[in-house]
# Entry
Amino acid sequence: MEHPTADALIQRFQTRAATVGVVGLGYVGLPLVRAMHDAGFHVVGFDIDAGKVEMLQAGESYLKHLGPGLVQALAHSDRFTPTDDPELLRGCDAIAICVPTPLGPHLEPDLSFVRASVAMVARVLKPGALVSLESTTYPGTTREVCLPILEGWDANALDAPHNDSNRQPDDDAGEAAEPRLVSRDFFLVFSPEREDPGRTGVDTRTIPRLVGGVDEQSTRVGVALYSAAIENVIAVESAEVAEAAKLLENIYRSVNIALVNELKPVLTDMGIDIWQVIRAAATKPFGFQPFYPGPGLGGHCIPIDPYYLTYKAREYGHVTRFIELAGEINHHMPRYVVDRVAEALNGDKKAVRGSRVLVMGIAYKPNVDDIRETPAAEVIHLLLERGAEVSYHDPHVSKFPEMRHYSIEMESVALTAAAVSSSDCVVIVTDHKEVDYALLGSHARLIVDTRDAMAKVAGVTARVVKA
# Structure
């Protein structure tokens, strides 16, 4: 088990003498920066967005759910260096890559951010350093995509990828420089992020962490790094096991949410409240875990990650029908919500076209400002397409941001009795706790509730339709 290069690096992790680099300072990278900094490491945070770097230098937060204290503490620390210059990563003993892994136009994996980041890291990688990929992806990415880039980079050949067909001999050495090799010149692991913005009581430090390397020594080194900052670190047999485990976690949720989303219109037509059904079933102390329906899926994980496995499965001749069906059901939910709005307005002898619709909440989940893949965007898009006059209120998102698939120019309106009473329909998409639901219940004419938010409100005079 002894390995001089690995043992020396592990010693630097254990004594906190190491410098840790984090590539990508978003919803995954910035919490990791905090964990590594709190553990006593010097941290270099890299992002291609110079605006984020400037905000961090000034102690200003662009992720509200993390609180202002985090970035202010980092801004005043001599152990944190935010930068958009990759050269500052050259001194890092470990570099964690926390970049997006979105889908392409045909639901295929888009690894462009991963490839570009690994290539950048390869150019500046310190001899004997650890590279950790945290971005969710299909099994085999770490070994088949990242490893060849890192091994194939010739640090002595003008920052160019190694290629035996066009390499020239080194004039001084008299022969070509030797390419890098894993576990001799660097170490490589996959350690999937498990961030859940807005969840209280847990954070990066307390959430158990998986680490799987491309070989045994890489796993050892990776476990040593994360154990210095995270309470419970679990070594798994390989990078592929860690990659597949992360996908399984998200597919499990996607499939079970799809189940209750499929049951919702069925039970609704039977005159049965699915929320009451779930609460009744949840009284069973074994064999059942409650999942809840909604207006569609949001965030990075559940709407996107399952398709990474369906893509890779086809390479091996498999069709993942169960996973793909769950995706179809969940992606249909915004349209179902808009159909319910239309039906509810028809009950008031009104058409969608020309009706004033107030959407409550555009973040993808309660109590955060995270709008990644939010179903609210599709709900608003469909309402506008049908001719509705749409406005929204969200205490966490003051302006609708530009999104990959949507460009909606709209700002949050104040939640007042006048704004509510002048709307033909209020649609609850995200149930932020800061919202005054009693105000909605007493001043709205019609509420379409996708979150069962009105169930606990007393004295509701509005007509409430569940969707």
Q: What stands out?
A: Confidence is low (pLDDT under 50) at residues 155-174. Residues 239-269 form the longest helix (31 residues). The first strand starts at residue 19 and ends at 23. Residues 274 and 374 are 23 Å apart (CA to CA).
